[in-house]
Specification:
Chain A: InterPro entries: DUF4350 (IPR025646). Chain A: Keywords: Membrane, Transmembrane, Transmembrane helix. The complex is a heterodimer. By secondary structure, chain A is α/β, with parallel strands linked by helices. In chain A, a hairpin with a 2-residue loop joins strand 7 and strand 8. Helices cover 36% and strands 25% of the residues of chain B. Chain B has 14 helices and 22 strands. A 6-stranded mixed beta sheet of chain B has the order 19-18-15-20-21-22, with helices on both faces. In chain B, strands 1-11-10-5-7 form a 5-stranded antiparallel beta sheet. Classes of the chains: A alpha/beta, B alpha+beta.
Chain lengths: 428, 478
């Protein structure tokens, strides 16, 4: 195709007077500056220059340095928060080695300062080994106490301090019974237990207990105490409804520290049972999961595979150049108005209007063929039609001017009859 | 920058290494570092994209339905060879092919790439960007960058009705009496006196002149020349409706001939004709459900044939496109350059989705056409919009000018009107009859006001309009 085609057409139709069939020729004359097509503002010197539109390193730096600064600030803040926040990782509640707000490191340091030896154990078996007649075994609600653990702990010598909740009381502390729940708040001792009376008000609550025979109940919430101490044989069993008062967060309030030290520091040795670290939970043979059996190389290989997938995504996701947008013309068929009207007729079963439209179209086409003026009245039309087609006049009259069809079948029949009449008029 | 499949493949192989390495953790780090080092080396050794220079040459104009070629010369002034991919991005409807080139330009050399454009719509198509992905020697990573290399190709109306031009010109010559068949010219404008030769119509003997001379003298006639024709193209909403079957594939539409082969040319442009034609009552062929060509394009086709014919007949042709205001205006073009001026003016025009302002159009025509002329209105015979828009202001126009209104009818409506057999089809037929009746009514009203009306199927509009023009010319009504 050469743009001179159209110029050719003009030439043939205009000046030269040749047969314009040449309009379809592929012109070969080059575009010259005098060509009117160029005069429409399209003329441009060949060899237009090109400009790079990709960002340079400098523009990337200028555009990205703000975001980079924000990212650096965020990272720095996160690092500072972790460093200042003490031990990383998750909180270990009521753990003597934990210095977070829910740990009990402060209490452990205080007890050590008073000469109490703290034996930190992570399983019931260890606790049983560590416990002697002159020790206190501390079981907190942080330790996930199984039935087996409870039966192992039940026969340990020495005192027993149960902190928080329902610590399998039936096995560990026969005779003691939980009765309900109480809100944790500052409470008065209201009892003669020396450890409690000396400590004064303490932040307590949680489980309430029924006082067994020969026992002492302190810090009552309503009628039931939240701290109970009693003798079971040659050892003392003390149960506390809630362990919050021993945490680093609460230890400095009220008489919390005093009560905690009185209870936990009653004997020279404190066997402190804490839950094992998460990784060691499955250390026992027979309790390994399927993932523990996978060789460590596979995990790293999966990481490497993830890297490969990321690279694959980068390869496939990088577009070669921009997406080019374009204003598209509207695509609407002109027949849609007629189709919409047809749908309305159908939806409303508008037989009267449909029949009127069909009759009008029929009359417009047929009346001129009958040689009648368009102003001819119904009677003239009917008689002329009947005469021309040989149909009975009443039938023609009812088809042209009768009432609208009573049902769809009548409408179809009317259309067919009008068609037949029109065909006969046309062919006659 | 960009990575290639080799980088991903290397990382995948690294997985095997890690799987069997004695110390997998460091192995992962090692593989990652090795990859990073390879990518860095490849990027450093790849030819620079930024210094590349591009030059275009080639076609500026193409008729719709035909193919233009645009050359892109890539010059590499850098010190390294540039090897990789190049994409010359154009709007989807420009139909640029191929989508991407393999590029290999040694340092200091240049290469010519030839792009073919097969546009599917009229209008100006601007090149968007040239993007080069320059691979490093290892083929792991590539530098990538884009350049703006401006070029635009104007897609002209196809002027398909030029096939009718020879026949119409033959009729025009018969009118002028210049036809070899020696029939008497049928014009009304006095041309000259000449001696009688046997075979001349005796009715054309000029007795007064015969009396002055000893010979029998006849008058010869010819049609009027140097009349004015003003073609007014309505680009309002009624011109956006699509009728008939597009003779060249338009955006979002399959070529009629390639419908059986499947893939649509306009696929990437994202228009979904299928959604518009869904749920039609069955029984009408697939051709009826394609969205066809806008009335505007049929009107342009007819306008071009009329302009070619009128220019050949010695009339002056002006052109105006109008919806709410004048969108294009071509006046005073010489006969040789008329058609090129017209197609250039028509190329960027699209139908606007606004109601045309007939009063403004009439005012614009009256302001521009001082002398009496033939005003050819190319619009749609839409009863509602004509009654509200054109009819109230028509007397101003028809009192000074001869008005000819041409419109493409909708074959789809005609097909609907023939539907019989089931109630649904009969309702369709009734709706189509109703629309046809509206059309006939508005046609009758226009004719009563002295307006010539040409109402023809889309493919027949151009010859019908040319015939109407020739008839007016023969009747001396111009």
């Amino acid at each position: 195709m050469n743009p001179a085609d159209i110029t050719d057409t003009t030439d043939t139709t205009g000046a030269r007077g040749e047969t314009p069939a040449g309009a379809g020729h592929t012109g070969t004359n080059p575009m010259n500056p005098a060509d009117p097509m160029n005069s429409a503002g399209l003329a441009a010197a060949p060899g237009t220059g090109s400009t790079s539109v990709s960002p340079t390193a400098a523009s990337l730096w200028r555009g990205g340095r703000g975001a980079l600064l924000v990212a650096l600030i965020v990272v720095a803040a996160a690092v500072a928060g972790v460093l200042l926040g003490g031990t990383g990782g998750q909180d270990r509640r009521l753990d003597p080695d934990d210095t977070s707000l829910s740990g009990a490191g402060a209490l452990a340091r205080l007890l050590e300062g008073r000469g109490v030896r703290i034996a930190r154990v992570t399983s019931a078996a260890e606790a049983r080994t560590a416990a002697t007649a002159d020790s206190t075994l501390l079981v907190t609600d942080a330790f996930p106490l199984t039935a087996g653990d409870a039966s192992r702990l039940a026969g340990t010598p020495g005192d027993l301090l149960l902190v928080g909740g329902d610590r399998r009381l039936r096995t560990l502390a026969p005779g003691l019974r939980a009765t309900g729940e109480a809100r944790t708040r500052s409470r008065e001792p209201r009892c003669a237990l020396p450890a409690a009376a000396a400590a004064g008000s303490v932040h307590l609550g949680g489980t309430t207990f029924a006082v067994p025979r020969g026992g002492t109940g302190c810090y009552p919430a309503g009628d039931d105490p939240t701290l109970v101490g009693y003798r079971d044989g040659d050892r003392t069993i003390t149960a506390v409804g809630d362990g919050d008062f021993m945490t680093n967060l609460r230890l400095a309030e009220d008489g919390n520290a005093a009560l905690a030290m009185n209870l936990a520091g009653a004997r020279p040795t404190l066997v402190w049972l804490v839950p094992p670290p998460p990784g060691e939970a499955a250390a026992e043979p027979g309790e390994q999961g399927i993932y523990d059996l996978v060789p460590p190389g596979v995990r790293w290989a999966v990481a490497q595979l993830a890297l490969a997938v990321v690279l694959l995504a980068l390869w496939r996701g990088r577009r070669l150049g921009p997406v080019v947008a374009e204003r598209l013309p509207v695509v609407v068929r002109a027949a849609e108005t007629a189709e919409g009207r047809a749908r309305l007729y159908r939806a409303r079963r508008a037989r009267d209007r449909a029949a009127a439209a069909l009759r009008e179209g029929f009359a417009d086409r047929v009346v001129p063929r009958l040689g009648l003026p368009s102003a001819a009245g119904p009677d003239a039309r009917v008689s002329a039609l009947a005469e021309r087609t040989g149909q009975a006049a009443p039938q023609v009259a009812s088809a042209l001017y009768g009432p609208p069809p009573a049902d769809d079948a009548g409408l179809v029949a009317l259309a067919a009859y009008l068609d037949m009449l029109e065909r006969q008029v046309r062919d006659s | 920058m960009a990575l290639t499949g080799r980088a991903a493949l290397l990382a995948l192989l690294g997985t095997l290494v890690v799987l069997f390495a004695p110390r997998p953790g460091p192995a992962v780090a090692g593989v990652a570092l090795l990859l990073a080092a390879l990518v860095a080396v490849d990027l450093l050794l790849a030819g620079g994209v930024r210094p590349l220079r591009f030059t275009r040459s080639g076609d500026r104009l193409v008729r719709l339905g035909e193919t233009a070629t645009v050359d892109l010369i890539v010059e590499n002034p850098g010190r390294r060879r540039v090897r990789g991919l190049l994409r010359d991005a154009w709007p989807p409807s420009a139909g640029a092919a191929p989508r991407r080139f393999a590029l290999d330009v040694p340092a200091g050399e240049r290469r010519r790439l030839t792009l073919t454009l097969t546009p599917v719509r009229r209008g100006d198509r601007e090149a968007a960007a040239v993007t080069v992905r320059s691979l490093g020697p290892l083929g792991i990573a590539a530098r990538q960058g884009s350049h703006r290399v401006p070029w635009s190709v104007r897609v002209l109306p196809p002027f398909l009705s030029r096939k009718h031009l020879p026949a119409k010109l033959t009729r025009l010559r018969e009118l002028e009496g210049a036809h070899p068949s020696m029939v008497r010219g049928q014009g009304t404008e006095f041309d000259s006196l000449r001696e009688y030769v046997p075979g001349d119509d005796v009715r054309s003997i000029d007795w007064r002149a015969t009396a002055r001379r000893s010979d029998v003298v006849v008058r010869t006639w010819r049609p009027e020349r140097d009349r004015r024709v003003l073609i007014v193209l309505d680009t309002g909403r009624t011109s956006a409706g699509r009728v008939g079957t597009a003779p060249v594939p338009l955006a979002g539409q399959e070529d009629r001939s390639s419908a059986g082969r499947g893939a649509g040319l306009g696929g990437p442009s994202g228009v979904l004709p299928g959604g518009l034609s869904g749920g039609l009552p069955g029984g009408r062929g697939g051709a009826g459900t394609a969205p066809g060509w806008p009335r505007l394009d049929w009107s342009m086709d007819a306008a071009l044939l009329l302009a070619a014919l009128a220019a050949r007949a010695g009339d002056r042709v002006d052109f105006m496109a109008h919806d709410r205001s004048v969108r294009a205006w071509v006046s005073g073009a010489g006969r040789t350059e008329l058609l090129s001026s017209l197609v250039n003016a028509m190329a960027p025009i699209e139908a606007e989705l606004v109601e045309a302002d007939a009063a403004d159009m009439v005012a614009a025509v009256l302001a521009r056409a001082r002398r009496r002329c033939l005003v050819v209105l190319l619009t749609d015979l839409n009863a509602a919009s004509l009654e509200e828009g054109l009819l109230p202001v028509l007397p101003q126009l028809s009192s000074r000018h001869l008005v000819l209104l041409a419109a493409a009818s909708d074959p789809q409506v005609a097909a609907m009107a023939a539907g019989r057999g089931t109630p649904e089809l009969v309702y369709d037929a009734a709706a189509a009859e109703r629309q046809s009746a509206d059309r006939r009514r508005i046609t009758a009203r226009l004719r009563r006001q002295g307006v010539e009306v040409v109402d023809a199927a889309p493919e027949q509009l151009a010859p019908a309009l040319a015939d109407a023009y020739l008839a007016l010319k023969a009747a001396g009504r111009l």
